[in-house]
Amino acid sequence: MGRKQTKSGKIRLTEVAKLAGVSPITASRFFRNPEALSESKRERVDSAVKELGYVPNLAARALASHRTEVIGVVIPSLTNNVFADVLRGIYDSSEGSRYSIQLANTRYSILQEEKLLRLFRAQKPAGLIVTGINQTAESRTILESMNCPVTQIMEIGDSPVDMMVGFSHYDASFAAISHILEQGHRRIGFLGARMDPRVQRRFEGYRDAMKAASLFDPNLVVTTSVPTTVTLGGTLFADLLTRAAEIDAVFCVNDDLALGVLFECQRRQIAVPRDLAIVGFNDLEFMASAVPSLTSVRTNRYEMGRHAVTMVIDAIEGRRPREPVLDLGFQLMVRESSMPQTA
Amino acid sequence: MGRKQTKSGKIRLTEVAKLAGVSPITASRFFRNPEALSESKRERVDSAVKELGYVPNLAARALASHRTEVIGVVIPSLTNNVFADVLRGIYDSSEGSRYSIQLANTRYSILQEEKLLRLFRAQKPAGLIVTGINQTAESRTILESMNCPVTQIMEIGDSPVDMMVGFSHYDASFAAISHILEQGHRRIGFLGARMDPRVQRRFEGYRDAMKAASLFDPNLVVTTSVPTTVTLGGTLFADLLTRAAEIDAVFCVNDDLALGVLFECQRRQIAVPRDLAIVGFNDLEFMASAVPSLTSVRTNRYEMGRHAVTMVIDAIEGRRPREPVLDLGFQLMVRESSMPQTA
DNA sequence: CAATCCGATGGTAGCGCTGTCAATAATTGT
DNA sequence: ACAATTATTGACAGCGCTACCATCGGATTG
């Protein structure tokens, strides 16, 4: 006794095939590999799909094919503006493709990351996007055993698990400090919060640039493991002033801190840039609007998200990039806060 | 000829059942309804699961049970800070539960929302969280036919599709304006960007508060459909000054605009709050840190996300709330930008 | 003590789709 | 013209799990 339609409204692939006058498997191929069908059948199936309003059952597809059409995304934070832009790129790029995004948040914990990767592996994603290059050995093993394209984002390094898209935080930071030095500043403070690996590399860029000018001094460095806020920028700056009153510039590992420093300067009547130059990192939108406008390092976050998805999808579908590592670079946006006085 | 293990390493529920010495269906019940098992079997299955490192196949589960363990979340923006907090609450709450989050972004398009809801419906989510109460008639129909708990978030209203958690934007805005009026201001400008439904209701709160004081004047209102930025705050404020030079306070529909106004005031040497009071909306972190600190309306975004997930999961599992609408309220954070001069 | 009920367990039969491979039709080379 | 090849298409047998019902011993009841 053959199976009847489970419910009056239930459209399965079988129904589509019947209406189109083909076998179910041919109808199935219509979705997976339409070029394999003759034009006449393709059109017949196509119109049957439309007529019946057929929607594939993803669970059945996944079960039968041992694959899903899910791209996993592992990021360390949902509140950080930086990731909002990356995510926007990711979601924008995934729309229109057959793939859907599964987002997971590590909250900057590498153990949580391990756990999440294990979870992802169990669900056999079609591709994976992970943040950074500092996975634990265990996480790396999981990634390598994942058997799907993997793209590491936000930064680049020498040994990609698979593919990478990002930029060099070290170089970006080094460039920012070089710029500040060129303006004639000598005592350049460093303000850092939540020293994640990328922030750490920004510190190294700062340190090496300062050392190259024989100006590095540990007293100029103030960091904390506390998450970044604007308020924290002011607090750290106050700390810095206590330790080293005679500073003439501050480099902040992100723009929130930089804004906090600017506000603290306003509170203390420190004239920017006359008494103090300020440089941030990321170039969030408000930096251009502040008074004085704030210098920052622009990074291509939206593009990073877009490229990450494109690279993963291309790899899934067999179009591997010639070059596995894509450097999206950065751009120093010089603004009033680090420019010579004009007034 | 019985089925063999597909691959040497493949652990299916059958393997677990075999090791535990129970039937597969009993092992299955261990996950779905552990109380139904006798304690001895429960322990046996439990240790078998652990010993084999069994991970359920979600696709098979979904196919056989006609359900998924996915909670769909529909929001209008990924870049808006407001949603970052809500999302954080949502993801935090979903962790530890069996449910996973599927995020979709409408970009403030109600047509896109319709399309996404249709997509979700096809995948039979266990629950759904959608933003706002202004769905199209079609979207509402889809939601009602969804056959799963639905929570509308960000605002509250009279006719929930199912459940709601949010607050009254009208009341919050009305309260903010009342506060400004109490400070003795009379010409209060309104600055609005991307007039989505919630921003529209904030406008209505402003309008009615002003009308109640017989102070409403359309010339005081400047809005645009452009997305919000800090820079835009300055631009809109400049427009406002052109139209109505003699204003003594500005209410901004969000904090980014408020910050932009503050910067524009600094540029124009307008003293805040002496010459102009500024009030924002959302109470983003930087508001307390600005110079002068900026008054805003605090909303419980993180809690909103948490409650939304909890309510949906509870409803999925049969624990419907007594009251379907949850008002999380708001709090006016009065700061220097709207306080009487102290200096 | 039979009738009834209930909690615990198991057997059967798919869920809707696709991998594999065989079968057929169309095309080509010699 | 005939074998060999290549494009299309189809049949079959599950993927791993759970819904549905059947079963079975033991507790409850009058």
- Can you summarize the main beta sheet of chain A? 6 strands, parallel
Q: Pairing-aware structural class of the strands and helices of chain A? A: alpha/beta
For the largest sheet of chain A, list the strands in their spatial order: 2-1-3-4-5-11
CATH class of the largest domain in chain A: Alpha Beta
N-end to C-end Cα span of chain A = 90 Å
Sequence of secondary-structure elements of chain A: HHHHEHEHEHEEHEHEHEHEEHEE
Shape of chain A: elongated
Instruction: Determine Rg of chain A (CA atoms, Å).
Output: 26 Å
Quaternary structure annotation: homodimer
List unreliable stretches of 5+ residues of chain A: 1-8
Helix/strand layout:
2 copies of one chain form a homodimer.
Chain A: H1 13-20, H2 24-32, H3 39-52, H4 58-65, E1 70-75, H5 81-94, E2 100-105, H6 110-122, E3 127-131, H7 137-144, E4 150-155, E5 163-167, H8 169-182, E6 188-192, H9 197-212, E7 221-223, H10 230-243, E8 249-252, H11 255-268, E9 277-279, E10 296-299, H12 301-316, E11 325-327, E12 330-333
Parallel strand pairs in A: 1-2, 1-3, 3-4, 4-5, 5-11, 6-7, 6-8, 8-9
Antiparallel strand pairs in A: 10-12
Helix pairs in contact in A: 1-2, 1-3, 5-12, 6-7, 8-9, 10-11
Chain A binds a DNA duplex (30 and 30 nucleotides) through helix 2 and helix 4.
Structural notes for this entry:
- The structure is a homodimer of 343-residue chains.
- The first copy, chain A, is of the alpha/beta class.
- Chain A has 3 domains: 13-56, 434 Repressor (Amino-terminal Domain), CATH 1.10.260; 67-167 and 301-329, Rossmann fold (3-Layer(aba) Sandwich); 169-298 and 332-338, 3-Layer(aba) Sandwich (Rossmann fold).
- Chain A is built from 12 helices and 12 strands.
- In chain A, strands 2-1-3-4-5-11 form a 6-stranded parallel β-sheet, sandwiched between helices.
- The longest helix of chain A has 16 residues, at 197-212.
- The radius of gyration of chain A is 26 Å and the shape is elongated.
- Mean pLDDT of chain A is 92; it is low at 1-8.
- Chain A binds chain B through residues 55, 57-60, 62-63, 68, 78-79, 81, 84-85, 87-88, 91, 100-103, 105, 122-123, 229-231, 233-234, 256, 259-260, 263, 266-267, 285-286, 288-291, and chain B through 55, 57-60, 62-63, 68, 78-79, 81, 84-85, 87-88, 91, 100-103, 105, 122-123, 229-231, 233-234, 256, 259-260, 263, 266-267, 285-286, 288-291.
- Chain A binds a DNA duplex (30 and 30 nucleotides) through residues 3, 6, 12-14, 22-26, 28-29, 32, 36-38, 41, 56-57, 59-66.
